[in-house]
Amino acid sequence: QVTLVESGGGLVQPGGSLRLSCVSSGVPSNIYRMGWFRQAPGKQRELVALALNGGVTDYADSVKGRFTISRDNDKKMVYLQMNSLKPEDTAVYYCYASSAAFQVNYWGQGTQVTVSS
Fold first, then answer.
1. Tens-digit pLDDT profile for the chain (117 aa)?
2. How far apart are alpha carbons 33 and 63 in whole angstroms?
3. CA atoms within 13 A on the CB side of 53
4. Contact partners, residue 114, CB within 8 Å, separation at least 6
5. Which helix (H) or strand (E) holds 62?
6. Residues 22, 79: contact at Cβ < 8 Å?
């Protein structure tokens, strides 16, 4: 059974920081693609950041310079360090993993991030 479990969400003031973690089970440790998506109320789910096996990373323009993704294949984890958070970062954040040609796609249940004063 494959599971992705996120943690680290919560309420933070604008300008603050949070670190999201995602632990995977049943997913190959060298799975091609791991990352984070988010979905705000009334909006479509959108890509936040991806980390490919081998070190390549990619970010949405809206988070470049503020968010950093990293993965630890030995621990089967992926992280998202979020700095300088803005109210528009408020969303449910989902952990994601997929194979190179998207034959398999896995999603976590999501963790709420709320940026508000």
1. 899 999 999 999 999 999 999 999 998 888 899 999 999 999 999 999 999 998 899 999 999 999 999 999 999 999 999 999 999 999 999 999 999 888 899 999 999 999 999
2. 19
3. 14
4. 10, 11, 12, 90
5. none
6. yes
